[in-house]
Amino acid sequence: MVQWLSASFRCLFNRHEPVHDHVTWDGAHYIGSCHRCGSGVRREGQGVWRRDWLQL
Asked: pTM for this structure?
């Protein structure tokens, strides 16, 4: 329960973690979906994944 709460708080503060098997390159960024909340995410830097507002 505590791990789930900490994971959901991370997503609330735009700190996502992708499903690594489904990350693709779109020509400019790596994109995928968050394994915790399912939203579309884009890599901004090494290990830094943020919500991709173009993929709602």
From this structure: 0.76
